[in-house]
Every structure is written in structure tokens, then in C-alpha cells.
Amino acid sequence: MKLRAALFIVCVPLLSSWHRAGAAEPSAGNQAAEGIVSARSAGAKGDGMTDDTAAIQRALDEAGQTGGRVSIVPARYLVKGSLRIPAGVTLQGVAEAPVWTEPLKGSIILATGGRDNEDGPALFELSHSSAVRGLTVFYPEQIATNIHPYAWTFHLQGHDNTVENVTLINSYNGIRIGPEGNVRHRIRSVYGCVLRRGISVDACSDIGRIENVQFHCHWWSAASVGGNWDAAHSFMRTNCEAFIFGRTDWEYVNNTFVYPVNIGYRFIQTKTGAANGQFSGIGADEAQVCVKVEAIQPMGLLISNGQFVCMHGDTRIPVVIENTCRGSVRLVNCAFWGPNRQCVVSHSKSFVSLSDCYLSTTFGGKNKARLPLVEADGGRLQVRGCSFGTDEPAIALRKGLHHAIISENNGVNGVEITNEIGERAILSNNEPFAPPSKPGSER
Prior knowledge:
- This protein has 3 helices and 34 strands.
- It is mainly beta and 443 residues long.
- It has a 6-stranded parallel beta barrel.
């Protein structure tokens, strides 16, 4: 008992002092010592009229001496230039949820730099172990009916940098990772309208993560930010490429969505290579192409629990795999619906697999062209355990396809298969095709 009492007497003042230190809000005089620097104390006005670029940069540079946080309290900060986030520094606003209020509330950055110069410095240039959190970015000079190119809002290079709890009201180009070498980026809870490009990843050599990202034109529709739904919607569906992946090794992408869009997810070859990774719970709605695979690494791409809808343009094919693709593409438990012309078209030189997917077109209506929902003319194809929800031909195995396994599928009229490769196709345990009694009707 004496030992316990002695320990209690010693611990109480230590715990009390720890709570006092943690609870106290640093004053202007001791902010640097506490690891927090106020942008206001560095001279930022936050009145929406004074250019606060230099003042915020002073605060960032001060925090960069030891590492720490620069606090952006609720206000409107006009930034006419570019801000460099030093290594080990976080630029921190107050938002912990997407900002969709009229008028805008919280820590607001009014950005005017980079107009008509996509290759200029980004609004935020992040280096090693730096972060931007809790901010809303709005470009007040961007007009929905006269959209101009702008530089990227974020540019990440180096290792272990983070963008989190950020709302992009009307960015032309959102977040660029690379093409400088980078590893372990973290993009989390980013929302808003991106007009031309959303997130572009390249030269990542070690496991990046993109989680809880949603892009659509709603954020720029409010009158308080000069929004015009029709103009923003039209521009995005014609021009926007939401997620672009060049070289990235084992990228993990979870719970992402875009509406509307030209190309939802695009996989390309760059000077540093191509991508591989796991993509779960991803979606693209009112797209021209939801997923376009031009190149990936041999181990390839796994997409699970995706939902894909095409509505506009001449293509209207959710998944297109080009003949330049030499890596594996696997789709598991994905849903295809809406007025698609087809669902998956593959010209791949490698492996393509669909498992436990639901495929349909035209909201159950008519596809007058009677195009097959799945069509392949290259590489090797597997379609297993899938359901074909509308009465178009299910699968076409075209000349040029090296081998196919089509098994255990069903459909509203059975599974109609066109086989142009003969014995190189294994067809087994599929629901027999039975044409409906009336054209276009379901059994």
C-alpha cells in the first residue's frame, strides 16, 4: 500500500502537467515553441482582398526550421502565387468534412495564380513528409461559361506526403503526384469539382494510397461561388480525366467516384513505366469511358466492387482495354448498367478476367445495334459466374483471341455466345441461350 500511494503521489502531478500542456492553446508568443505557427501571426490578413501568399510562406518557412504545423484559422486567404510546404510541415485548416455551404465557411484559399499556365508551379508544392489538411480551395476568377486552364492545385514529390480533408470547389487540375520520384503518398477524403484532371500519379516506386475521393460538378453549382450547373457538367463530361495512373507500384485505391466524366480511370505508359495495383469500391457515372487501360505492368490490375455507367459520346463502353496492354486485368463483382453500347471490349495482348459481375445496358431498354456485352479479339479471356441482365448477345470471341474460358454464366435469355476461335474456347455450364418469343422481350 505504501508503494502504491507513493506512485500515486508521483504520477498525479505528472499527469496533471501533461493534460495542462496538451489542453492549452498556444498563444502568439509561444506558438513556435509548441510546434504551431499561426499564419495570422506571420501577417496573413484573411480578408479575401490582400495577397497573403508571402505571409503564409513566412509561417511555413518558420515551421520548416524544426518541423511543425502552420494554422490557417477560418477566414478567406487570397493566394496569388504558389506555396511551398517544407519537409516535415503541415498546413492545417479547420475542415474535417467536405465543405458545401453558402457562403463558404472555414479555412478558404482563394487561388488566382497559374491561370493559362498548366505547367507552372502548383498552388501547393509538397516535399518530403509534408501535408495539407482541412482546407477549401476556390478559384474565384474561373468562370463556368469561359473555363481557362490553370496549374495543378497540388503537386507532390518525395516521400510520405499527405493531402487530406480538402475540398476543391473548381480546380482545373487537382492533384499531381510525380513525375519526380515519390513513394507512399496518401490522398484521403478529397472532394469537389475537377474540370480537366483529378488525380495523376507517376514515378511512384512504393505503394501509394488514394482513399475516399469523390469528384462531381455539384460543388461548383452553388450561386455563392458563381456556379453554373449546365456549363460545369458539360465541360466535365467532355474533358475530364478523373484518375490517371502512369508508373506506380502497388497502388491501393479505395472508395473513389466521379460524375460526370470523359474518362474515369486511365492507365498509361510514361517514361518511368506503367501501373499495377488494387482498386476496390471505385465508380464512374455518366462517363464516355469508365476505365481505359492503355498499359499496365505484367502483374496488372485488380478491380473489385466497381460500378460503371456510360451515357454520352460515341464510345459509351465502360471498360476498354487497348492492344498496347500487356498486363493482366481482372474485374471481380463489378456492375455495369445504364445506356452503355457494350460493357467490356478487350484488344489486350495479355489476360483479361471477369468474375461474378453483372452486365447490362440501356436500363433494360433496347440496344438496336445488338452489340455483344463482352467482346475480345486478343490475348486470353475468362468469364466465369457472371450475370447478363439485358437481352443483347452476351459474349463475342473474335478472331485474334488466343484462348477463352467461358463458364457458369447466366442471363435473362440464357448466354448467347459467338465463337470465332473454335476449339480454343472452353464453353461449359452456361445457361443455354433461348431467344425470346418476341424480339427484345425477356423470358
